[in-house]
Amino acid sequence: MAQYVITIDGLAGSGKSTAARNLARRLGFVHLNSGALFRAVAHLALQSGANLEVDEEITALAEQLSFDFSLDADGQTVFTVNGDKLSEELTNPTVSEAASKIATLKKLRQVLSGIQRNFGKSKNIVAEGRDAGSVVFKHSAYKFYLTADLAERARRRQHELGQASTQAVMHDLAARDSRDTSRAIDPALPAPDAILIDTTALGPVEVVERVCELLKKKGFPVP
């Protein structure tokens, strides 16, 4: 039986994580967070002292890991690595920065993309990332790309991370945007057939409602 794959891409602070998580919960789908894969690898690479710039070294580490995204009894997606649940470890700013760096590694991206595609073959998923629609699941019929202006994205990240300086967050976001969108391997750009949604003036509930409206127009069975 064919599985449904919905992709939600966007830059940091665009609201894609919240939208993907809430949409998956509404549909009863697994929330596949590609960023969690990269952050998990980055976290373990930092712990082991691996060189973040050596593709073969980081990829070999990733290939030793067993990842899973599954639904718990409450319909929430649980992410595990080698059977262990990771959550707080992955939100550390140092880990996020390291994840952004290793995301430029070609072999690593190929391995993690393959892992994501395997999940898409066996489960109904809402895949969140920066190239979920343009690269990983480019044949999906349901693709969305969330945008928001830099100031609003910085405000959201500041609230999320508890940092004091909005200017510092804006500076970090701008640098990350440049790195993610200009990288030679799978740049973080919307797929040609993705539907763009500007979330600058939208709350989390409004974003999901907008996505559901668009899914219905495409014939998707939204409950």
Q: Could you state the oligomeric state of the chains shown?
A: single chain
Number of helices: 9
Shape: globular
Rg over alpha carbons: 17 Å
Biggest sheet, in brief?
A: 5 strands, parallel
Write the layout of secondary structure elements.
Elements: E1 5-10, H1 16-27, E2 30-33, H2 34-48, H3 55-63, E3 67-71, E4 77-81, E5 84-85, H4 93-102, H5 106-122, E6 125-129, H6 132-136, E7 142-147, H7 150-161, H8 166-182, E8 195-198, H9 204-217
Helix pairs in contact: 1-9, 2-4, 3-5, 7-8
Overall description:
Strands 2-6-1-7-8 form a five-stranded parallel sheet, sandwiched between helices. Strands 3-4-5 form a three-stranded antiparallel sheet. The model has no long low-confidence stretch (mean pLDDT 91). Helix 2 (34-48) packs across helix 4 (93-102) and helix 7 (150-161) packs across helix 8 (166-182). It contains nine helices and eight strands. The chain has helices at 16-27, 34-48, 55-63, 93-102, 106-122, 132-136, 150-161, 166-182, 204-217; strands at residues 5-10, 30-33, 67-71, 77-81, 84-85, 125-129, 142-147, 195-198. It is an alpha/beta fold.
